[in-house]
Amino acid sequence: MELARVTAVDDDLVAAFGRLMPLLSETARPPTRDELAEIIRTGHLFVARDPAIIGVATLNLYRVATGLTARIDDVIVATEARGRGVGEALTRAAIDHARAAGARAVNLTSHPRREAANRLYQRIGFERRDTNTYVYKLR
């Protein structure tokens, strides 16, 4: 398996998101080529290949009053690649990038039904917060 930070959108990346997005959400459509370019322009996108893309993860760094913080979103691993350490490798790559950038913390959320993902995050050192998470839906 090869891990890489994506710097440009290509057909393989667009196709990979077409395959992977339904594994994350039944309702979200895959990002378009332009939306993927925006993700790369404003954040950090990591992929795992073997040799095709078998997993993705997004990292966003942002400054708040208390310092530079980071958030990992949309870690998606192809069904046939699960259990092979792909999700862990992608998550650790994002953590390493955040650490190198000087972030004070890395945040993420994971739906409770994603039991394997939740076990992974706790195993590699994420701590479950005792907090309320809110959403204000705009559409």
What does this molecule look like?
This protein is α+β, with helices and mostly antiparallel strands and 139 residues long. Helices cover 35% and strands 25% of the residues. α3 links the parallel β4 and β5. It is globular. The mean pLDDT is 96.
Please render the helix and strand layout as text.
Blueprint: E1 2-5, H1 11-24, H2 33-42, E2 44-49, E3 53-64, E4 67-77, H3 86-101, E5 106-107, H4 115-123
Parallel strand pairs: 4-5
Antiparallel strand pairs: 1-2, 2-3, 3-4
Rounded to the nearest angstrom, the radius of gyration is 15 Å
The helix-strand sequence is EHHEEEHEH
Query: Level of helix content?
Result: 25-40%
Count of strand segments? 5
- The class by helix and strand makeup works out as alpha+beta
For the sheet with most strands, the description reads: 5 strands, mixed
Estimate the strand proportion: 25-35%
Gist of the model:
With 139 residues, the chain is α+β, with helices and mostly antiparallel strands. It contains 4 helices and 5 strands. It is globular.
Keywords:
single chain; 139 residues; 4 helices; alpha+beta; 25% strand; 35% helix
